[in-house]
Amino acid sequence: MKRLIVLAAILMSVSNVSFGQDDDATPARKKRTVTESNFEMLSGFINIRDYVYLQNNAKMIIELNNVEQYNELKHLDTVLYHFLDEIAFYRDSLDNYNGNVRIDYTIDEAYPFSKIRFKKHEADGEVFMNNGNDAVAKLKLEQDTVRIFVRHNPVVNLPENIKGNWAKESRYSLNNAEMYQLTFCVNVYTDLRKIADDKRTLRHVIDTLTTTKKKNTKLNPNKYTSSTYYHPFGIDTATSELCNVNHVCGSCRKQARYRQYKGLAIIDNSNGKDLIPQWDEIELGGNIGAGLVRNYLAPYAEIGVTFTKDGRRIYQNRYSSTSFSLLVASHFLFEQGAQGEYYTKPNWFVNAQVGNADGLSMGAGYLFSKSGSYFSGTTVKAFMNISVFKGKGFTLSPELIITDDFRQVFPGLTIKVF
Predict the structure, then answer these.
(1) What integer pLDDT is reported at residue 41 of this predicted model?
(2) What is the spatial distance between Cα 257 and Cα 251, in angstroms, rounded to a whole number?
(3) DSSP letter at 68?
(4) Distance of alpha carbon 27 from its chain centroid, rounded?
């Protein structure tokens, strides 16, 4: 049985099978380019994500850090008018384009100017409409996308104890910045003027989203994230496209108009199943390597489960994810018998550890299955895991082993790979 456990540990260390979510937390961890950082809100700061379905197939995605930011959106029409005025200079270039357009627009208090980026995407072929009377018109089937990113940066209020320290100033500025972003999917980007002109609907949407947020989200949005699907113009039939994402039933008319979920929606749907969970990842995996026990270098293997908590804050462009692991591990020692034959002497520990998912961690272990004369009586150990080469699967683990009912103490060192 123990041989089967050892084999499983080795196989799991090679395959490192993961039962995690391929969700929005994954893109949140990828390295962003300098350009993207100028036009995109940090994913770790998004605690509220609302999908609002407007007329003419338009959709608005609201991403906020906290509920108080809804107050700024009460004058969303002014922001949209300002955006349209600023891109008017480029209108000839955009209006004569046959494909769809992505426009990113950033207002950042750290700079005395706004930033604009255009991305043009070629149409997937050319589609025409023919009404049968030799009147042919070209159709545009793919929507334009407009993202407005607003960032307030209170760098003028730096605490006295961090002034003059560039690293601390940078971290304070980043983690105390107030930011939000709005994404519009519209048939043509100029449709934003129609949306801005309908001030009554915009105000009604913002008021509804503000007043219906749960108390926990208002008090602690970082812990109690929230997503809403809202169709302010209602749904007439239970077989509508929005309702069909879920199912078809008589009660869908009421459910589909407004739905709020505990958690951040990963993709644009209305079934509430694709939410970023409290735990970002559950991973079953292991490591192999070698360790020094007293004066003996022995093979080493471990297998277990690791819970990685979603890293919702970034420090100096690094995510602060925390991992919790429970593993069984063994040094496989060998002894020679009277006739020269060798015996494997595995000594099994159960280890619990906590730390940064990609860096330093520490933990403790308890010997629950002893073989041979290397350990005696009650045996425990404390250890640290130091990732020597980030992301390369090479870990150095210094240990302090206490054995013989706490009467003997000696150091150890284990090198893990994978």
Answers:
(1) 87
(2) 11
(3) G
(4) 6
Q: Which two tokens stand for residue 231?
A: 């169709």
Q: Give the residue ranges of the chain where pLDDT is below 70.
A: 1-32, 96-98, 124-141, 153-177, 235-256, 267-280, 310-320, 357-358, 390-392
Minimal CA–CA distance to 175: which of 149, 154, 159?
154
Residue with tokens 């043509």: 188
Residues 291 and 412: beta-carbon distance below 8 Å: yes
Structure tokens at 249: 């039933």
Q: State the Cα–Cα distance between residues 206 and 210, nearest whole angstrom.
A: 6
**Rounded-to-integer distance, Cα 71 and Cα 286, Å:** 49
* Confidence at residue 325, expressed as pLDDT on a 0 to 100 scale: 93
- pLDDT score for 211: 93
> pTM for the whole thing?
0.58
Q: Is the separation of the CB atoms in 355 and 393 below 8 Å?
A: no
Q: Tokens 């490192």: give the residue.
A: 16
Is 101 within 8 Å of 147 (Cβ atoms)? no
DSSP line for 339-361: TS-EEEEEEEEEEEEEEETTS-E
Integer Cα distance of 7 and 13 in angstroms: 10
Kindly list the domain boundaries of the chain, sorted by start residue.
2-21+279-417, 25-276
Which of 91, 92, 93 lies closest to 83, judged by CA?
Answer: 91
Q: CB neighbours of 87 closer than 8 A, spacing ≥ 6?
A: 94, 103, 105, 116
Q: What is the pLDDT of residue 368?
A: 94
